[in-house]
Design a protein that fits this description.
The structure holds two protein chains of two kinds. Chain A is of the alpha+beta class. Chain A is 36% helix and 28% strand. The longest helix of chain A is centred in the first third of the chain and has 17 residues. Classes of the chains: A alpha+beta, B alpha+beta.
Chain lengths: 99, 371
C-alpha cells in the first residue's frame, strides 16, 4: 500500500494532535448524571472528599475535591469522566461549621 | 467583614492604599519612568522585591491607581480602589465594588497595569452589627445561638440562628441539625437534645458557656434531619415576643418568601455569627460530599454523612464561611428582599457547602418567612 508523503505527514500530525489535546469523546449526558454514576467509586478513594459540577470558563468540568495533595492519589484519579474534563481541587476536609 | 478577614492581605492593602495617597500628595509618584513590567505575579516578585511601597514597581502601580481613582470611583457600584493582589496572586489595581459589576464595565488594564474587581460590599466603619452580642428582643436572625445545654467535655458550642420558616402556621428558627439537635449521647453532659429544650441567643460560646447570661428565644422541634435525610437542618419554634416575626436578618433585612435555585457564578451573601455579612459566588452544583459529625459538643464520632446534590461556594481563606457560621441562610446578593438559595452547614478554608434551600424546605414541609 502506498501513501503519498504529504498524506503520511498529515496523518501523523492529525494523530499527534489528537493525542496531545487530551480530548476524548464529547459528553453524552448531563454532568449530574455522570457524577451520580461515578461518585460512589470516587468517594471510596481515601483522600477524596467531594465531587461536583463546575465551570472552567465556559466549559463544564467535573471537579474532585481532595483532602490533601499526593502524587499517589492523583495517579488514581481519572483525567476525564463521561466526556467531561476532570479538575482536581485541594479543599482540605469538609467539616461542619459549628464552633 | 470579608475584606478585613485576612490580616496579611489587609495589612498590604492598607499600607499600599495609605502610602499611595501620601506619595501622590507629595508628588513622589511622578517621574518613575516606566518600571511596570508585564509580569505582575506577586509570587514571582516576592523572590526579588518586597511587596511594599519600597518597591519601585509597586510605587509606579500605585501612581497609576492614583491617576485613575477618580474615574474609577465614578463608575456606579465602585466603592474604592487599591493596589493589591487578586486570588491568583497577581498584582494589579483592585477595584472594590458593592456588588459584582462585571468585567465589561471595568477596564481590563490601565496604562499597562492589570485591573481586577474585588466584591467587598459597602465599606463601612467597624460599628456594624455585632452578630455575637445579646440583642434586645425581638431579635433578628443571622446571629449567634444554639441549644441551651450545648456544653460537654469541657467545651461549649454554638452556631448561627439563620432565618425563619413557616410550618403548620407557626414560625420556627431555621439552623442546622448539628447546631441545635446533634447531641445524641448523654456522655459529656448527661443530656441529649430533646423536643421542647430552649434555644438561646447568643450561643453558649459567646457568653462564656453560661446559659443564664443568654436569653431563650425558641424551643427545639425535635426533628432530626440526620443521619437519615440529605439536609443538615433543624428548626425551633419561636417564643412569643423574642424574635422579629418578619424574619429580618442582621445586615440583610427582610427576605423574599420565594426561593431561588443555585447557579454557577451566582452572587450570594450570608449573615452569620462568626464572619458577619459576607459575599461570595457559587462555584459548583450537584456536589457529593462526605462530612464527619460528632455525637455532642467536642464529643466522639457519630457518623459520616454522604450528601448528594449540594451547592459549592468559593470560600478562599474562610472569608465567606468560618466555624460558628453554620446555620446561616445563603441568599441572592441583591439589596432588597433577596431570595433564599441554600442553608450553609459545612466547608473548608477554600470551599463552603450549602444544602439547596428547596431540599431543606421540602424536608421540613415549610416555607420561608418573607415578603
Amino acid at each position: 500500500m502506498s501513501i503519498e508523503w504529504p498524506c503520511r505527514v498529515s496523518l501523523v500530525l492529525a494523530l499527534a494532535l489528537a493525542g496531545c489535546s487530551g480530548r476524548g469523546a464529547p459528553p453524552s449526558q448531563p454532568a449530574v448524571r455522570v457524577i451520580e454514576a461515578s461518585a460512589d467509586s470516587l468517594m471510596a478513594i481515601p483522600g477524596v472528599v467531594g465531587v461536583y459540577e463546575g465551570l472552567s470558563g465556559r466549559e463544564t468540568v467535573i471537579r474532585i475535591m481532595l483532602a490533601e495533595h499526593s502524587d499517589s492519589l492523583v495517579r488514581r484519579l481519572p483525567k476525564r469522566l463521561g466526556g467531561y474534563r476532570v479538575e482536581l481541587e485541594v479543599t482540605g476536609p469538609i467539616v461542619p461549621m459549628r464552633r | 467583614m470579608s475584606l478585613f478577614s485576612s490580616p496579611r492581605r489587609l495589612m498590604l492593602l492598607g499600607t499600599l492604599a495609605v502610602a499611595s495617597v501620601a506619595l501622590f500628595l507629595a508628588g513622589c509618584s511622578k517621574d518613575q519612568g516606566n518600571p511596570l513590567a508585564p509580569t505582575t505575579d506577586a509570587g514571582a516578585m516576592k523572590g526579588g522585591a518586597e511587596l511594599s511601597m519600597a518597591n519601585p514597581a509597586i510605587r509606579a502601580m500605585a501612581a497609576v491607581q492614583d491617576r485613575h481613582t477618580a474615574d474609577l470611583m465614578a463608575i456606579p457600584g465602585v466603592v474604592g480602589t487599591a493596589t493589591g493582589v487578586d486570588e491568583q496572586g497577581q498584582l494589579g489595581i483592585m477595584v472594590m465594588t458593592e456588588h459584582a459589576i462585571g468585567a465589561g464595565r471595568l477596564p481590563a488594564e490601565i496604562e499597562g497595569v492589570r485591573v481586577f474587581e474585588e466584591v467587598t460590599g459597602k465599606i463601612r466603619a467597624f460599628s456594624v452589627a455585632d452578630h455575637r452580642v445579646k440583642q434586645t428582643p425581638p431579635i433578628q436572625m443571622g446571629t449567634s445561638g444554639g441549644w441551651r445545654f450545648d456544653l460537654a467535655n469541657g467545651f461549649c458550642c454554638g452556631g448561627t440562628l439563620g432565618s425563619l420558616v413557616l410550618r403548620g402556621g407557626n414560625r420556627y428558627v431555621l439552623s442546622n441539625y448539628h447546631v441545635l439537635e446533634a447531641d445524641i449521647v448523654s456522655g459529656g453532659n448527661s443530656r441529649v437534645a430533646t423536643a421542647g429544650d430552649p434555644v438561646v441567643q447568643p450561643g453558649l460560646i459567646d457568653i462564656s458557656c453560661n446559659a443564664a447570661t443568654g436569653q431563650n428565644v425558641a424551643t427545639l422541634s425535635g426533628i432530626k434531619s440526620l443521619p437519615g435525610s440529605n439536609v443538615d437542618a433543624a428548626i425551633a419554634q419561636i417564643t412569643t415576643g423574642m424574635v422579629q416575626t418578619n424574619g429580618s436578618i442582621l445586615e440583610v433585612g427582610t427576605i423574599s418568601a420565594a426561593t431561588q435555585p443555585a447557579a454557577v457564578g451566582q452572587a450570594v451573601k450570608k449573615s452569620g455569627r462568626t464572619t458577619g455579612l459576607t459575599r461570595s459566588s457559587v462555584t459548583g452544583l450537584n456536589a457529593n460530599v462526605s462530612v464527619q459529625y460528632e455525637n455532642e459538643c467536642a464529643g466522639g464520632a457519630a457518623f459520616v454523612k454522604s450528601y448528594t446534590g449540594q451547592i459549592v461556594i468559593r470560600n478562599k481563606g474562610s472569608r465567606f464561611l468560618n466555624s460558628g457560621d453554620s446555620g446561616s441562610l445563603m441568599v441572592q446578593d441583591v439589596a432588597t428582599n433577596p431570595r433564599a438559595v441554600g442553608l450553609l452547614f459545612a466547608g473548608s478554608s477554600s470551599s463552603a457547602i450549602a444544602n439547596p434551600i428547596g431540599q431543606v424546605l421540602s424536608f421540613l414541609n415549610a416555607t420561608m418567612v418573607g415578603n
